[in-house]
Write a structure and sequence with these properties.
This protein is mainly β. It has one domain: Methylamine Dehydrogenase, Chain H, CATH 2.130.10.10. The protein has two helices and 34 strands. The strands form eight sheets. Strands 2-6-5-4-3-14 form a six-stranded antiparallel sheet, with no helix packed on it. Strand 19 and strand 20 form a beta hairpin.
Length: about 425
Amino acid sequence: MKPKLLLLCVVAWLCWSCNDQCKETRVVRRFSNATYSLMELRTQVKAESPRTLEQPGKMYVKGKYLYVNEIKKGIHIIDNGNPASPKFVTFINIPGNGDIAVRDNILYADSFCDLVSIDITNPTAPKEVGRVDNVFKTGLFDGGGWSLNESVGAINDQNVEWVTETVTVNCEDNVPPTTWWGGVIWMLADRASFSSSSASPQSSGGSNGQAGSMARFALDRNFLYAVSQSQMHLFKIDKPAQPVDFTTINMGWGIETIFPYDNKLFIGSSTGMFIYDNTNPAEPKQLSNFQHGRACDPVVVHEDIAYVTLRTGTACAGSQNQLDLVDVSNPAAPQLIKSYQMENPHGLSINFPTLFLCEGEHGLKVFDVADKFSVDRNQLAHFKDMHAYDVISLGKTLLLIGEDGFYQYDASNPKDLKMLSKIPVGKAI
C-alpha cells in the first residue's frame, strides 16, 4: 500500500506544480449580517444637509426637481430649473430606500418593510406625514437580502461591501469574474412614463412625476402600485398623505419592474413580461404572460409595441443579451416581432421613433425604430463615455443615470447628444 500511496502523492504534486500560479485582481462582494430595530429605523426618516452622490440608484423627475435614490440610504432632491447647472437642495435620510414616486406634493418611498409618504411642499424641509408598516416582507440590495422579523420588530439585513482583492489562481483557470451593479433588485425599477408618448396615467386630478424603466413603483388614478419579488401591492391614495394598504396580488417569483400604459400594467420579470388589464385600477387582472429565457427584464411601451431588454449578469442568471420587440396589439396574446442582439442592455426609454437603450459599461445606444424589422440597421449613435443604467426621455432633454453619476443631454438631435450637465459620483455641485 505504501508504494501506491507514495506514487499517488507524487502524481498529485506533479499535477499541481505543472500549473503556473497567477495573481488576479478582482472586485467581489462580501456579506455581513446586521439586525436593525424597526423602532429605531422609524425615527430616522428626516431631512438632512445636501450630500454628494455615492451609489446612485433610480431617478425620478417632477417639475423642476429631480429625485435621485442613494441606494439603501435615501433620496437626493435636486433643483433642475437650469439643466446646465443643477443644485443639490436636500437629502432625505430613508434607511432601506430603493424606489420613488411623486403625486402632487407627496413623495412615496420604501423604507425596508414600510411605505413612507413625505410632504415635499417645501423641498428644503421635507417631512414624513404617513406610513404603512410591515407591508414589504423581503428585499434585495446589491444581491444581499433582507427580511422582516415581525415577531421581534426587526430587520435582518445582509449588508454588501464591494472589495478589491488580489488572489492567487492557476493561470489556466483564470476566468474573469462577473460582477453586478444596479443597486437593488428593487430596481430596480423607476417606471412611471418617461416618453412623450406614454405620459403618466390618469390621476384623478393629481399630478404625477416620471420614473425610469427600472421602477418598481407606479401611480395610476387613486392607486400606487409597488411590485416586490413575488407580489404587487396596491395602496389607495385618494388621501395622498395617508396611503392605505388596499390589497396584494400574488404574481410568482422574479418580479422586477412595472410600467403603466393605456390602462394596462406591463410587468417585467426574470422569466417574461406580464400584461395586466388595469381598466379598474382597484382590481388589475392578468391578461397574458410573454415568456423568455431567464434574464433581467425592464420594458417600455409605445402604442402596440413593447420594447423589452434581456441581459446576463450575476443577479440575472441568464444567457441572453438582446432587445425584443413584442406586438401587444392583442394584449391577451402578445407575439414576438423580432429579437436584436445587444451587449448588456439595461434600462430604456422611447420618444418615438427614437429608442434610447442603456448598455451598462458599454454606454448608451440610440436607435430609430420606425421600421420594427430593421432596428439593428438603424442605429443612430453609440455613446461610450459613460456607464448607463437607466434613461428617461423628456423629448428634447434626456436624463441618464449610471454608477459613475447622473447626466443630462440636449437630445434635439438624437444622433448628436449634447451634454448639458453631469453630477459625478463623489463630487458636490
